[in-house]
Every structure is written in C-alpha cells, then in structure tokens.
User: Which sequence fits this backbone?
C-alpha cells in the first residue's frame, strides 16, 4: 500500500511539473524576433531578460548575447518576467545609471545591483554581462545561506567589516556551486570555470557594491561559439508558414484566402492591401503593405508600408512608411519609426527615436542623433553627436548646429557687451552648441551728430583652448537706422576674431581684430571709422568703404 501511495504521489508530482512548465513557457511565446529565434531550444533551460530602459546607444540584443556567453546559458528577451523562471530585469534609472535584478528558478530571492555604465556601448554590454554573472552567483550564495551558511553582510556594514569579509569569501564559494548545479543553472563541465571567477570578482563587489562596474576595464576574452539561430535567421518565425510567393487584392482575398495571414512571403504583391506575419524578400503594392511582425528586404508601394515590428532593409512609398525600428532606408513623404534608426530617413517629414545615421527632409524630429540632420527644421530632443544643418535647429546638446537660428537647451549661453572703433556699442546674446553659435544684438552709435539705432545678427565658430580661455571666429551683420523713423542708413558686414578669458565670478573679457565693410545711402552715412577708410567701389550708387578695426567687450559665463 505504501508503494502504491508513493507511486501515486510521484505521478501527481510529474503531472504538476508538466503543468507548471507549460504555464511558465507561455510568456516566452510573445511574438518578438528575440524570442522566436530561440523557439527550437528547450524553454526550461532558457533564462529570460526583461529590458525596461537602457541608454540610447546600448543595444538590448548585444546585452542579451553578452549575458548568455557569461552565464553559459540561453538568454531570451521578453516583455515580462514569467513566474517561476530564472530571469534578469534591466531597468534604466536616468542617464547611464541602470539597475539589474536577478531571480532564480522557483521562488528564489531577488538580488540586484545599481551601476553607472561606461560611455562605450561595447564595454557597457560586457559590464552588464559580468554583473549578471555575479548576481547569478550571489543568488546561489544566498540560497546556501538560507540552508545554514553565514548570512551575507549588508552594504551598510561598518567600514571595518570588509577586510574581515574578503578572506572569508573564497571558502564560502566551494559549497555554493553544488546547489547551483542541482538547479541546472550551468552545464556540469562549466562549473570549475565559473567557480574560479567569483574569487577575483564577486568578493570585492560584496564588500563594496559600488565598485561593480570596475571589471569593465578588463573585459573577458570571448570564447569561440556557434552563432545562435537568431543570428543565422533573424527574419523567421517558428509559428508562421513560409511561402515563396503570394498575391492579394485585400487581406483574405487572394492567396491568403486559402493560406491565411500567418505567413512569411519571399515575394508578395498587393493591389488594395495585403497583410501577413512577415516579409523576407520583396513586396510590391499599390495600396497598403502591412506586416504584423517584421520586414526584411524591400517594400515598395504607392500609399503606405506599415510594419508593426522591425524593418531590416528598405521601405519606399509615395505616402507613409512606418516601422517599430529600422536598420536600412525609409524614403517617402512621411517616414515614422517608433524606435531606434540605424540608417537613413528621407522624406518631407521624418520622425524617429534615437538615430544613428541621417535624417534628410524638410522637418526632421528625433531623440538622440549620432550622424546628421539636414533639413529646413531639425529637432533633436536628446544630445546630437554629429551635425545639424538647417534654417532652424533645436537640440538638447549639440556638437555642431549650423543655421539661422540654433536653439541648444543645454548649450553655451553668454550675455555680451561690446564696442568697436566706429563708436557703436552693442548688447547681445551668444548662444549655441560646442562649436557653432549665433549672435543677436541691439545697440546704438554713441558718436556723431545724429544717434543711430543698431541691430546685429551673427554666426560664429568656437574653440575652447582651456577651461577659461577660448577663441571665436565670427561673421556679423549690422543695420543702422534713424530714430525715431527707423529708416535704414547703412549696412555693415564684419569679420572678427576675438579671444575670451574668464576672469572669475562668471565674468570675462574678450577682444580681437576685425575688418568691416559698409554700404550706405550717402558718403556721410558711410564715414563711420574715426580714421581714413578705403573706398571699395566708387561707381556704386551707394558708397562702399572698408577698414580694419578692433572689438573689445565683457562677457558673462
């Protein structure tokens, strides 16, 4: 009777385990390219990675691959951490600060670390991989502590405790590895290699958790490995049927009448509209080309190409192109990418998340830009590490914004007061990015029989030679007007080179040589220099004179 009871309980346990594994596998069936690529691998051996925010230049796919290499297991991206499965959750906390947490299979405790990522994207992925491996080993140590081992010290322990903890760390690793092996977290042949790593990395991290990113300075060597299915076949879905060619007048009217819409075509032709899971080749349409998961290849249509997932290739439409992310080219009247772009957008209106490449259009809108925005109006809500060229440019920060009006939210801003040999005294604003700025000024001519109201507009380049010393090369235009009628009397074009020195209390001085050319309505209005000036054009209806001069001023920093 006892044997029968034991057999009954064993069979029930097996059935319960099967149900739990099926429930746990459910969230892994989310139709994203990262999860589908691992569909042929056993879901029970995979570790889930949930990304809830990363700096714009860090690729979640690179992080996933690096963590997989570090822990020696298959890692898949998911929208949520499934219950009862080993999972990492990566959450951005602003800037380059991120928090990575880990929970082992079953009801394991959650452990985590918050670190600042290196500026280099590849080093950032390696740093997260090392941290993930450390957290996985920390989890094993905590489980061992629950079984009767020494409890782990809190990060707020007294400063005298770390020296006592460091030597005790190495012996504690020996009993930690067997429970990890029992949980099937690592293949048996890899246990010695992983057991040696905590001796040099995890021990100091437990004593001083803030030093977790330090190993990024010495990235580990990457072992030779076989490319994953996702790398070999990124444009593939395990739950979709592959067909070489299809044609539809409308969704479900055409070849999809018999085959359905859960298909991936190599060649697709659509009259009014076509709808499928994905494209791995070429799609031609007159109306709407719609793909639910991805498009790899080229989409051409007269009206709109709409892909609810990533696009790797080319979208060309007379109307609208849409994708969740892009690696390639979009060319249309309106190009919209909900996520990052690595490539080029060319249209009247280009909208994207972070851009690595180029936006070439009338109105360009993006997050961070590493490349070029060329248009009439360019908007970047995050830093620009490249070039903006347009009539109006806006950026959070910018290395080079060139236009009639440049607005850099966190750029250089100086209030200037300057005078020159003509007796013109000006007050203005110099504002711009790291290398290019605009100058806007208003002033008056304080010498002469009649007062003149003066307006100025300029564009210049900036070179920061030291913390307190810089040199600007500026081109300015001045217009002189009668008062109170505001009738123009003369126009000046001036080139100047000024050196600026910050002398303290956010105040500085600047000075340098200049050369000015004036075009006036009369000889009297043109004689602005206090000394002889050379006539450049005696035959012109309005006299033109030019002379060298000097500019001296004060500047706030």
Assistant:
């Amino acid at each position: 009777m006892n044997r029968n009871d034991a057999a009954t309980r064993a069979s029930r346990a097996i059935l319960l385990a099967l149900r739990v594994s099926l429930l746990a596998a459910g969230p892994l069936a989310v139709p994203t390219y990262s999860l589908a690529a691992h569909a042929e691998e056993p879901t029970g051996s995979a570790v889930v990675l949930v990304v809830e925010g990363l700096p714009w230049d860090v690729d979640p796919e690179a992080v996933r691959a690096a963590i997989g290499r570090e822990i020696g297991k298959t890692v898949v991206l998911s929208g949520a951490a499934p219950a009862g499965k080993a999972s990492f959750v990566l959450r951005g906390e602003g800037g380059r600060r991120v928090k990575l947490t880990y929970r082992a299979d079953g009801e394991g405790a959650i452990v985590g670390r918050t670190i600042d990522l290196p500026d280099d994207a590849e080093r950032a992925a390696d740093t997260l991989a090392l941290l993930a491996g450390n957290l996985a080993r920390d989890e094993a140590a905590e489980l061992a502590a629950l079984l009767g081992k020494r409890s782990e010290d809190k990060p707020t322990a007294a400063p005298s405790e770390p020296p006592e903890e460091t030597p005790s760390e190495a012996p504690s690793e020996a009993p930690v590895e067997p429970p990890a092996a029992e949980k099937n977290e690592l293949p048996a042949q890899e246990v010695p290699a992983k057991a040696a790593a905590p001796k040099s990395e995890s021990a100091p991290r437990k004593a001083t958790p803030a030093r977790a990113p330090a190993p990024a300075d010495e990235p580990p060597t990457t072992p030779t490995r076989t490319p994953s299915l996702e790398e070999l076949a990124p444009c593939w879905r395990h739950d979709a049927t592959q067909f070489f060619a299809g044609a539809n007048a409308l969704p479900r009217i055409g070849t999809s009448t018999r085959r359905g819409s859960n298909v991936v075509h190599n060649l697709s032709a659509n009259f009014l509209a076509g709808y499928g899971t994905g494209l791995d080749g070429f799609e031609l349409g007159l109306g709407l080309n719609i793909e639910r998961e991805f498009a790899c290849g080229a989409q051409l249509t007269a009206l709109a190409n709409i892909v609810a997932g990533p696009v790797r290739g080319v979208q060309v439409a007379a109307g609208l192109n849409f994708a969740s992310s892009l690696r390639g080219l979009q060319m249309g009247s309106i190009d919209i990418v909900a996520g990052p772009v690595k490539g080029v957008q060319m249209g009247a209106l280009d909208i994207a998340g972070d851009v690595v490449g180029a936006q070439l259009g009338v109105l360009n809108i993006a997050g961070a830009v590493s490349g070029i925005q060329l248009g009439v109006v360019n908007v970047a809500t995050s830093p620009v590490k490249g070039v903006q060229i347009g009539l109006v440019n806006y950026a959070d920060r910018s290395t080079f914004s060139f236009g009639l009006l440049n607005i850099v939210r966190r750029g250089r801003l100086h209030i200037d007061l300057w005078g020159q040999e003509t007796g013109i005294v000006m007050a203005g604003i110099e504002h711009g990015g790291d290398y290019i700025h605009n100058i806007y000024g208003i002033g008056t001519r304080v010498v002469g029989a009649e007062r003149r109201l003066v307006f100025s507009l300029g564009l210049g380049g900036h070179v920061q030679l030291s913390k307190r010393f810089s040199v600007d090369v500026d081109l300015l235009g001045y217009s002189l007007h009668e008062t109170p009628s505001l009738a123009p009397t003369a126009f000046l074009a001036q080139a100047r080179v000024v050196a600026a020195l910050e002398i303290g209390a956010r105040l500085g001085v600047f000075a340098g040589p200049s050369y000015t050319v004036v075009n006036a309505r009369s000889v009297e209005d043109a004689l602005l220099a206090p000394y002889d000036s050379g006539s450049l054009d005696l035959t012109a209806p309005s006299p033109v004179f030019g002379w060298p001069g000097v500019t001296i001023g004060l500047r706030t920093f």
